[in-house]
Amino acid sequence: MDSATIRRRSLLGAAGLLAASPLDALAATAKPRVVIQTNHGAIVVELETAKAPITAGNFLRYVDAHKYDGGTIYRAARTKGVKGAGTIQGGPAARARRFAPIAHESTRTTGLKHKAGTISITRNAPGTATADFFICANPLPYLDAHPGAPGDNQGFAAFGQVVEGLAIVKTILALRSDGPAPVPAMKGEFLNPPVQILSMKRAAA
After folding, report:
1. pLDDT digit string, tens, across residues 156-202
2. Is 142 helix (H, G, I), strand (E, B) or coil?
3. 65-80 pLDDT, tens digit each
4. What is the pLDDT of residue 12?
5. How far apart are CA 139 and CA 178, in angstroms?
């Protein structure tokens, strides 16, 4: 597998709507936010639960079960020759029990793109994603779906955006990364030491 491949619903009744105030309606449609508290600072992501309900909902399930607490951001995959470009990758601690894999939500169907600050789910084959995620430090369009391209062209499932803390993402991306790699192609990408995820929880409304 080359480096590009590695990196590449509730219904309200009519009466309820009539009774709701404008503020209630706003709250009902607000996108949920999650605070990823690390030992290098906080990253706040806003989730696209309407556009990517399966992936965003899965992420929130892990958050609400506190499965990310005590996990790590363990990988910094930098774009060669471009300073400050690449992705950081994290997930629950190894001891955390994972939920069943989820269906793949292609960027072709969600309309989301891998831009600076996009949070996306990692996977092997489509339909194998569980809990590990990555955040883009810069636009990385090759991670989007590319129908017609050879091989696995379905891309990764983007499901939200960093709204606070992109500087923390870039700080983590620049950390020492000479930790043990599972395969030679990932050499120089594993943080040493990994960044601790102290907690991950929904932001107060």
Report:
1. 999 999 999 999 999 999 999 999 999 999 999 999 999 999 999 99
2. helix
3. 999 999 999 999 999 8
4. 32
5. 25
User: With bands split at pLDDT 50, 70 and 90, how would you rate the model's confidence at 29?
Assistant: low
By residue count, the chain amounts to 205
Q: Tell me which H or E stretch contains 58.
A: helix 53-64
What residue ranges do the domains of the chain occupy? Answer: 32-202
Domain 32-202 has what CATH class?
A: mainly beta
Q: Which long-range contacts (CB under 8 A, 24 or more apart) does 34-37 make?
A: 34/59, 34/60, 34/63, 34/160, 34/200, 34/201, 34/202, 34/203, 35/199, 35/200, 35/201, 35/202, 35/203, 36/68, 36/90, 36/165, 36/197, 36/200, 37/197, 37/198, 37/199, 37/200, 37/201
34 three-state secondary structure:
strand
d(CA 181, CA 199): 25
If you ran DSSP here, which 8-state letter would residue 143 be given?
A: G
Its pTM stands at 0.86
Question: Which residue do the tokens 């996306």 mark?
Answer: 120
Tell me the H-state helices in 143-184: 166-173
b/e burial code for range 105-119 (CB count within 10 A of at least 16 → b): bbbeebebebebbbb
CA 42 to chain centre: 15
Q: For the segment 101-136, what is each residue's pLDDT rounded down to a tens digit?
A: 999 999 999 999 999 999 999 999 999 999 999 999
